[in-house]
Amino acid sequence: MSAENIKNFCKHLANNYEFRCQLNTAKNQNEWLSIVSNFGFVFTKQ
């Protein structure tokens, strides 16, 4: 994940209440990644 992606991700986190609420409901990393990708973030596996 690039620095630019991380910066944008953090900005979204701060500004998007629905996004934060959904992340809080994630029970595991796969759910978390699924929610994040639904909001337009692409995580690449290292």
Residue share in β-strands: under 5%
Number of strands: 0
Q: Name the poorly predicted regions.
A: none
Helix content: 55-70%
- Average of the residue pLDDT scores: 75
Q: Treating each run of at least 4 consecutive H or I residues as one helix, how many helices? A: 3
Q: What sort of overall outline do the alpha carbons produce when their principal axes are compared?
A: globular
> What count of domains describes the coordinates?
1
Question: What's a quick, concise take on this entry?
Answer:
This protein is mostly helical and 46 residues long.
Keywords:
0% strand, 3 helices, mainly alpha, 46 residues, single chain
Describe the structure.
The chain is mainly α and 46 residues long. The protein has one domain (3-38). It contains three helices and no strands. It has helices at residues 3-15, 17-25, 29-38. α2 (17-25) packs antiparallel against α3 (29-38). Residues 1-45 form the Nif11 domain.
What secondary-structure arrangement, pairings included, does this model have?
Layout: H1 3-15, H2 17-25, H3 29-38
Helix pairs in contact: 2-3
